[in-house]
Amino acid sequence: xxxxxxxxxxxxxxxxxEHNLEEIEIEREGARIKLKKSxxxxxxxxxxxxxxxxxxxxxxxxxSKNLIEIKAPMVGTxxxxxxxxxxxxxxxxxxxxxxxxxxxxxxxxxxxxIKSEVKGKIxxxxxxxxxxxxxxxxxxxVEPL
Length: 145
Description:
Helix content is 18%, strand content 38%. By secondary structure, the protein is of the alpha+beta class. The strands form three sheets. The protein has a four-stranded antiparallel sheet, with no helix packed on it.
């Protein structure tokens, strides 16, 4: 789940005040935030609720299919191919072996090839080309063979 930035929450509160809204709820990329003003009858503090229902459902599906997550070993920029316009290293449906190059993560101007440690079939590519990735972020879902 992506973290919701404090600045975004403050912006939502400002919108609520400007438009005299009592409650606002937004869901994006598996994260949900709900803001609700307290009323004179309700002395509770403002409610801020962040939910990852989508994320937990995806985790259950992964576990039930016995899929392996290949995670980013470092922080950097994810690239599916060795150069712009080149064919991606792997596609969904490809069978991979240990040592198969899956992608490149650029970190501090160094291009690091990320290789598979498992044998299996690529089920899903979880990151878009050129996106920043965090350490431990899932990159690929692999069905073991």
